[in-house]
Every structure is written in C-alpha cells, then in structure tokens.
C-alpha cells in the first residue's frame, strides 16, 4: 500500500491519487484541506458555494484522507492587515505556504510511525517541499520513497533566477525564488538525497537533476496530461493577431522578454493579451510595455473562453516544471511559442503545433510572433494540429505511467 501526501491536490496529484485508488493501492492521502466528492453535505449546498468547495473534493472515501487544515484555513481567510501579512509571510509566517507544506509532511511522518511494524505501508509518494520529514521516517522503517519533482531542481532554478535578477534588476521582486532561505534549500537537497525514485514532468526538470543523482537512482519523465479538447472558435484569417500570455506576471515566466519583443514589433495588427496575477501595480507593468491588454484572473471556464478568443499562446519561461497552461491553450486550439524551460518541448512540432524558442531571446520571439501575423492561413492548420497533440496526452495515461514507476520501486 502507498501513502501519498500533498497539501493542495493539483491536477497531476489527482491523477496519481486516482490511479492508486483504482488499483486498490492507496493507503491514505494526507492533505491540508479536502473532502470526498461523495459527501452528502456537499450536495446540499447552494450551487455557488458548492462550485467553490468542489475544488477540494476528491474521488476517494473520506476514510482514506487525513487532514491538516488549521494553517491552510488561516491562510485562505487571512486578509490584508499587518497581522495577516505576518501570518502568511514567506517561510516565517505560521500560515505561510511553506508552513502548510511542512505541516502536511509532518503529518505524513506521524502516520508512518503509527503504521510501524504493521507492514501496511510499502511506499510513500511525496512532492518537493513536502517530503523531508516523512522520508526520514520512511528510511528508518524501510519504506520505499518516491519523490515527485514538479519544477526544476533548486540549484538550476536558483542559478537561472539570480541571472535574471542581474538581467532585469527591476523585475527581481517578481522572481520569488531568489529569496528562499538556506534552510529551505537544504531541505530540498535532503529530500532528493533520500529519494529512491524521482518522477519528473519534463525533460527540462530531468536535466536539472544533478548528473550524479541520475546515475545513482532511477529518474523518469512522465509528461502531464491535457484537459479535454474544447470546440475551437472559428479560425480568424484576417484582423489583429491576438497573442496570449497567461500566468503569474513575473520574469520567471519570461514576461520581461515578451515585453521587450513587443517593443521590437512595429506593427498595429498584433495585440498582446496578458492574463494573470499582478505581482507589482499594473502601472508598473505599463511603464515597461504600454502595448498590452490586461485581463485579471478568472474562473476556469472564463479562462477557456478568453483562450478561444486568441490566436497564439506565448510562454517564454525561464524556470518551470511543465506549465499546464500550455496544454490548456493547445486544447483550445492555440499554437505555442515557448521555451524548453517551460517544460513542453515535446508538445511542439516545429511549424506544425508551434515554435520552440531559446530563453532570453526577445528578437526570436518578435520574429515568431511576426511570422504568425504574416501567415494567418497557416495558423488555421496549426490550430487543428495543436488540439490533436494535446488530445494525445491524457491524465489517465499519466496516472498509469506513474503507477507503473511506483510498482517498479515498491514491488506492489
């Protein structure tokens, strides 16, 4: 049986959870906040409230879940007062994201200790920032340790982000990872050392794992699944080319380079649409690029509608794992212009589903965007190819491939 721990239950976590439950290998799911989607009380709520709560609902019985809700509830309810900001302060706040991760890790460690001597747990599947304490206990108990590394290993990420802080000093406050403590980075290093199998979502993440680690233990690449393909809007063969960027508005995702590319495009038939969370005031971004349409974050169904109104998706990321938004855009019929560091290089068939561009290359971005504006008829065919490629990657296949890797390590 396998213990799985993660505080939030992202789509990739749910796919692994479903595969374990379906194969009757799930011992327990340790998370911050959640409930079974079969819970009767959930069905009694008004539609608007239920729509919010189902984001934390899972296809497993409540008896298979162990919750650590206090910090997560506090984080979600924290306002904008000085006390609230202290509570969620990076790493140090009692209800910070980091402390939520650690509380789930510690709960998983306690569960392992409680099962010691029963032989019930053969393996633990845990994620970066949520594995050190539970992996220590698992090692001592002889429980196999599978480590999911969803983003580039910290040493590569730190190097790239510090280089970006040098390239664009004014964008440094948006980078985030440059301010991680040495203690947090040491946790990441120990997690990797304790792992017996490493699961990566992309070639970029795989390559970021130190060569000596890859030589010493199994390290596999399992690409994420795509959402269901949606009916694409009719292709626009004329008019303004709408270029979409979606994600946190940070140079970690290459937004400064995209802004620089737009400065090089001296034409009026290209519109940059930026949808995402502001990490600085909107006027700050306008000072760096006046020519973009800002769209705030919104519910997923509305995101898909916005994608359907655009023609091309651009993500020139510096550090990612595998940005799921790429496959969401492709499922809506948008060709990609993206870097390998965005984690989706396998999605791109050059000139058919999109274009792979180097990091830190505004000139190449400008060239590819201009090509798309000049070749609207070709974009129509690329939209179909993008949807076909997205449809080839399913979440069920992802879960089954991860399950096979787990079985190979645990013998379950």
Describe this structure in words.
- The protein is an alpha/beta fold and 412 residues long.
- The chain has two domains: 2-225 and 395-410, Rossmann fold; 241-391, Glycogen Phosphorylase B (Rossmann fold, 3-Layer(aba) Sandwich).
- 44% of the residues lie in helices and 15% in strands.
- It has 18 helices and 15 strands.
- The protein has helices spanning 11-22, 40-43, 47-53, 70-77, 82-87, 97-114, 132-141, 154-167, 182-194, 203-208, 211-216, 255-264, 282-288, 300-308, 324-331, 362-374, 376-391, 395-410, and strands at 2-5, 26-31, 35-36, 57-58, 65-67, 123-127, 144-148, 197-200, 219-221, 241-246, 270-275, 293-295, 312-315, 336-339, 354-357.
- A seven-stranded parallel β-sheet has the order 5-2-1-6-7-8-9, sandwiched between helices. Strands 12-11-10-13-14-15 form a six-stranded parallel β-sheet, with helices on both faces. Strands 3-4 form a two-stranded parallel sheet.
- Strand 6 (123-127), helix 7 and strand 7 (144-148) form a beta-alpha-beta unit.
- Helix 1 crosses helix 18 (395-410) and helix 7 (132-141) packs parallel to helix 9 (182-194).
- The longest helix has 18 residues, at 97-114.
- It is globular and about 70 Å long.
- 45% of the residues are buried.
